[in-house]
Design goal:
OB fold (Dihydrolipoamide Acetyltransferase, E2P); twelve-stranded mixed beta sheet; globular; mainly beta
C-alpha cells in the first residue's frame, strides 16, 4: 500500500451508514466525514468514522447499497469544543473504491504503551485489559489509540509497563454505552481496537 505508514495500516470493507458530509479544510483541501458500517460474523455491526479528501470521493458514486473498501490509518485528535468525546477516533482514508469483496475489518499497529494497562474482570469472570498505544506518524506527531484485549491476551497485556513497544493485529470496534450527565443517561459511542494477537517489537 504505497503512501501508507507501516506502523498504522487499516483495511475496511463495508457499506455507508450515511452520505459523506463536509468536515473541514486543511491546506486548501476539502475533507469529508462518513460512517462505514461493517458487520461481524456474530451479526453485530461496527460503525467506523472515515475522513476522506474530496478527490478520493469525487471519482466514485457511493451509495449505501454497495460495498466500499477503505485503506488508511487510524487517527486520533483532542476535541476541544466541549461537545462530544474528548478523544475523537477516525480512519484517515488513503484509498477508497467500490468492491464486490465481503465485509472486512482489519488493523495492524506498532506503537508504545503510554498509560499503565488496566486489567479487570467482567461480571462473568472473563479477563479484560484496557490499553492506550502511542503510534507515531511520519512527521513527528503521534496518535493515541485505545485498545482492548481479552482472555489470555488480557492477562499478558496486564503485565506490561509504560514504554513497552508492541505490534498488534485486531479490528476497530464501536461500542455503545450510557453516560450520566446532569442526572440524565445519554447514549455515547466508544471506539477502540479489539486485539486479536500481538508481539514484542
Amino acid at each position: 500500500m504505497d503512501g501508507i505508514w507501516k506502523n498504522n495500516v487499516v483495511e475496511l470493507c463495508g457499506v455507508l451508514g450515511n452520505r459523506p458530509k463536509f468536515s473541514h479544510m486543511s491546506k486548501d483541501r476539502k475533507y469529508y466525514l462518513f460512517p462505514l458500517e461493517i458487520q461481524r460474523l456474530s451479526g453485530t455491526v461496527d460503525t467506523v468514522n472515515i475522513t476522506a479528501a474530496q478527490e478520493l470521493l469525487s471519482g466514485i458514486e457511493v451509495t449505501n447499497e454497495e460495498h466500499v473498501k477503505v485503506r488508511g490509518e487510524l487517527r486520533s485528535f483532542n476535541n476541544k469544543s466541549g461537545k462530544g468525546s474528548k478523544l475523537v477516533i477516525t480512519v484517515f482514508a488513503r484509498e477508497i473504491f467500490l468492491t464486490n469483496e465481503e465485509e472486512k475489518n482489519s488493523i495492524m499497529l506498532t506503537g508504545t504503551l503510554c498509560k499503565p494497562p488496566n486489567l479487570r474482570r467482567t461480571p462473568m469472570g472473563r479477563e479484560i485489559c484496557d490499553l492506550m498505544l502511542a503510534v507515531n506518524r511520519r512527521y513527528g506527531r503521534s496518535d493515541y489509540l485505545p485498545g482492548i484485549a481479552w482472555g489470555q491476551n488480557a492477562e499478558t497485556a496486564g503485565t506490561w509497563s509504560v514504554g513497552k513497544e508492541v505490534s498488534l493485529i485486531g479490528r476497530i470496534q464501536s461500542r455503545k454505552y450510557i453516560k450520566i450527565e446532569n442526572g440524565e443517561g445519554i447514549e455515547k459511542t466508544a471506539y477502540e481496537v479489539s486485539v486479536i494477537s500481538f508481539e514484542d517489537v
